[in-house]
Amino acid sequence: MNAVLSESSAESLPTLADIEAAARTVYEEFQATPQYRWALLSERLGTDCWLKHENHNPVGAFKIRGGLTYFEQLAQRNALPTEVVSATRGNHGQSMGWAARKHGVACTIVVPHGNSTEKNAAMRALGVTLIEHGDDFQEAREHAYALAKERNALMVPSYHIDLVCGVATYWWELLRAVPDLDVVYVPIGMGSGACAAIAAKLALNHRARVVGVVSTLATTYPDSIAAGRVVEAPVTTQIADGMAVRVADPSALAVLSEHLDHIVQVSDEEVAAAMRAIYEDTHNVAEGAGAAAFAAAMQEKAQLKGLKVGAALTGGNVDAPVFAKVLGAHLSGN
Questions:
Q1: How many Cβ atoms from other residues are within 10 Å of residue 125's Cβ?
Q2: What is the mean pLDDT of residues 310-325?
Q3: Alpha carbons 71 and 77: distance in angstroms, whole number
Q4: What pLDDT digit, counting tens, does each position of 101-118 carry?
Q5: How many contiguous H segments (helices) and E segments (strands) does the chain have?
Q6: Which residues contact 166 (CB under 8 A, 6 or more apart)?
Q7: Which terminus of the chain is more solvent-facing, meaning fewer CB atoms within 10 Å of its CB: N or C?
Q8: Is 27 helix (H, G, I), strand (E, B) or coil?
Q9: What is the strand order of the sheet 309-313 is part of?
Q10: pLDDT digit string (tens) for 195-241?
Q11: How do residues 9-62 score in pLDDT, each as one tens digit?
Q12: pTM, two decimal places
């Protein structure tokens, strides 16, 4: 893919030494998550398929790694604030809550109205002060920036190099565990997960192609890459809230534009089918964005024959009624 910026974006990514240091920080809280070659998933895909289980960490999603590293960097610089503010659809907020609690920092998180009730409850359980504002993530994000300025608190963005460094540890684990992977699929929300995959690949000099995944109903990243600048796109996905981003981050866009092999767009129906497939074949629960990588691999199934495929199950935090509806639609034949 073509670069949006002229200079190499790789210069802004964490190095191998950075990622290894971040792993030591992460492992103070939990150990490496597993990756398995699931026989039924591989049979369904028609080739070897390895699934990385970020649903098996303490908040059930990959974001915790970034939060731990972000706060550790603040601590090392003697720059811990009294309060942080951020915006989320849920998993980033849990990451902030966990890491803020560890360091004794107050944490306020803004979510849009109608956000996942179970993710909201999980954030509150971590000590987060939760504020509901706006109709989508972008409106919640803008309110969070205003609130942080008003309170003289630290606004934690959804994309930051220290977040990427922590998130890269799970890709570092996967690429070292399965060194002969040919291609990996990673969902794109604000971009930390996909940029982290690229960082780990470059740091390890791994051969795998990195394929980004977005919802067909949230296309700011492919639209922005095509235009060579940030392009706002409407968000209407009902199931992939982790990818429900209306405005791409410019720094993430530069990295993804230069280093992604390509982007696959998946529909809500494809995501739901992938959630069912993962449950049927592995008995793991995947939220919408967490199943998007496998949905994309299934869409490109014909092109993957004979290749070794890695897919990130980035999170399992789906509300019970939503998951029941996904499974029920299959049982009812819809």
A1: 10
A2: 97
A3: 10
A4: 999 999 999 999 999 999
A5: 13, 10
A6: 22, 25, 26, 65, 66, 67, 68, 69, 70
A7: C
A8: coil
A9: 35-37, 49-53, 309-313, 183-187, 209-215, 262-266
A10: 999 999 999 999 999 999 999 999 999 999 999 999 999 999 999 99
A11: 666 899 999 999 999 999 999 999 999 999 999 999 999 999 999 999 999 999
A12: 0.95
**Residue 45 φ then ψ, to 5°:** -80, -20
Find the angle CA(111)-CA(113)-CA(116) to the nearest 5 degrees.
Answer: 70
Instruction: Please tell me the distance from the alpha carbon of residue 200 to that of residue 131, in angstroms, as a whole number.
Output: 34
pLDDT at 4: 46
> Would you call 96 helix, strand, or coil by DSSP?
helix
Distances (CA, A) of 50 to 180, 188, 307: 11, 19, 11
**Are the C-beta atoms of residues 316 and 114 closer than 8 Å to each other?**
no
Give the position of tokens 């998951």.
323
CA distance 82 to 103: 10
